[in-house]
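User: Here's a structure from my thesis project, written as structure tokens. My advisor, Dr. K., wants to see whether a designed sequence matches the one we expressed. Can you design one independently, without my sequence as a hint?
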């Protein structure tokens, strides 16, 4: 990952700030990892300190919001530190959101749910900054030709079509979204669902998603892409019910 503090030659000098004064950005999508996953980083900080300052923005109350460096902050807490090196930047909320998303999408392992919420947050921020977008297109991206979506794709590791698919996931009920994450986590005994069928199911209203969830848990299976397309088709025709779902599955 590139040094996030070297991108701007006008970056202020690092300073030390108490951890108690550093707060998360509202609505941050990144999933908190279990403390045991921080072992190596905690050891490194205990022996050599924090090698790269985190990025903060100043709040109106004089305290700070964390823009980048969530893992480093948590590792500092686990290491028993009271302060950490930071760089405070003059960022409005939308710019801070975009900066946070860009930084964290460069992580080696990003869950589908994290990407989904991150991309949605960034597009919303871009819209507020006056850039155009079109989120009404189909999953294959036939209408995703607007300049803002292409700019987002150019700045991201995913294509504009794939970005749209991820954003669709934000319409899933949490239990179905967890199944998409499970394809990455690969924990034993969990149901796993691929991205493409999950995108089709994201068009179902919440009550139909919950009905589908009951069938999936009862049958201990998730739909294929072709099955998900059938389920969505029955939903759009107003003919989807638990019996239909069961017959398709």
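Assistant: Designed independently from the structure alone:
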């Amino acid at each position: 990952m590139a040094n996030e503090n070297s991108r701007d030659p006008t970056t202020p000098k690092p300073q030390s700030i108490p951890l108690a004064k550093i707060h998360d950005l509202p609505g941050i999508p990144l999933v908190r990892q279990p403390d045991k996953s921080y072992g190596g980083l905690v050891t490194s900080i205990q022996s050599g300190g924090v090698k790269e300052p985190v990025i903060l923005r100043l709040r109106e109350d004089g305290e700070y919001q964390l823009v980048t460096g969530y893992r480093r902050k948590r590792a500092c807490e686990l290491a028993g530190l009271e302060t950490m090196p930071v760089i405070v930047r003059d960022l409005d909320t939308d710019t801070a959101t975009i900066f946070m998303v860009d930084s964290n999408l460069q992580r080696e392992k990003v869950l589908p749910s994290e990407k989904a919420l991150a991309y949605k947050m960034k597009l919303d921020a871009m819209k507020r900054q006056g850039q155009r977008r079109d989120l009404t297109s189909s999953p294959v991206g036939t209408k995703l030709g607007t300049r803002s979506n292409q700019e987002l794709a150019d700045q991201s590791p995913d294509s504009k079509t794939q970005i749209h698919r991820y954003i669709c996931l934000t319409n899933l009920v949490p239990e179905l979204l967890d199944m998409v994450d499970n394809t990455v986590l690969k924990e034993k005994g969990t149901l796993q669902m691929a991205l493409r069928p999950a995108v089709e199911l994201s068009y179902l209203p919440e009550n139909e998603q919950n009905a589908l969830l009951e069938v999936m848990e009862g049958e201990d299976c998730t739909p294929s892409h072709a099955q998900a397309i059938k389920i969505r088709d029955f939903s759009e025709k107003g003919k989807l019910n638990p019996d239909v779902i069961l017959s398709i599955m």
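When you compare it with your expressed construct, this may help: The chain is about 45% helix and 10% strand.
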